[in-house]
Write a structure and sequence with these properties.
16 helices; six-stranded mixed β-sheet; two-stranded antiparallel ribbon; alpha/beta; 8 strands; about 10% strand
Length: about 400
Amino acid sequence: MAKEKTFMEESTAPGTGAAFDYQFYYFIYRLLNMKKGQSIGLEIRDDVHSELDNDVQLLFQVKHTIQTKADGAPITLAELDSDLWKTLYNWARVISDPKAGRKGTDDQINFVKKTEFHLVSNKSQSKLNIFLGLVTAYRQYPSPQAFDALREHTQELAQSTQDEKIKTYIDFVLTLDTTVLREYFKRVFFQLEETEIIQKIKDALEDKFVPPEDVNSVYERLCSVIRDDNYIAIIAGELTSISFTDFRDRYRRIISESARKSLSFLRSDPPLPKDLLGQRFIQQLVAIEDISPTDVELITQMSTYKVRMARNLEVWVHGGEVVSDEVDDLHRDVTLRWRNRHRKAFRKCTEDDINEEAQRIVDAMRDETYQLGDDQLSTEQSNGELYILSEDDVIGWHRDWETL
């Protein structure tokens, strides 16, 4: 004999929390798939609704069950399922709502023609649900014969049910004017077996270039922030739809920051040129007496900075850590800084002071660090950038560096 439930057990609904969460997660999923010009709302016009940029709205009734079949899958959506008929009833009430100015048939038709009605559920689909099959067939091929078959079957369902509440729901749907009912049934969609809604959110985040290793943390933070914002808006009586622009402006940092990481650091050094002294940038530094041609250790160190930075740039661009135009911007910025210093230093420089002024330029620029995209380069990397440009004859230190 089954154990009788206590009052506390009877008064709590374990599936209620899951249903609210399911609705919220579907809202997040729709937000992440929103296009420019669209907006999404939660618990405003329906459980979830979407306004498209062509003056069409999508209403979503989101239903969740914790009941399962023997195989562990959610139960099927039956023909006389309360979720099904309460949803269709609610939409029929919305369509014919006189308080919204839709008492007349023409107004109801105009509303329906600009609306899609979507029932979303984790319940399983069943081939035994003839009603769903007839709705789908009519939506795909809206012939008079298909509509008659659908309405006739709906009337049979109303007559066959022993549940007075469901009968009331069905009867009200059938009270809609025939022309309205035709348009209504054309625009009813069923999205069943939506069981992996959390994974679909995570897949959508990955589609927005969130690295796989960061998807879980971004998902948790995004859901938490939107849930808090939504609660605060409800308390303040300011709950409104979120437009594409709103969503982008308010939450993009959560998504974009996941892709912002410190640049990877090259652990192994690429091979150095065999002729270190023959490098153009070394010859320029020797020419201004910044280094001695016999200082092998210093020449090796500077050469290492150059080849390491060159390799870093290659790896960063190839790996998507930076974009090639950001590298171009770096080169342009450093070159401009050099040009300004070089012109200033040699504007009135005498022959005897050339090397001293050149050394001042290179010393000052070695002390600077440069920006690559959103990242600040280290001193070593910034020095490496100087030596790359000097090696490529883009910049030089001597007054007459181009002819040396």
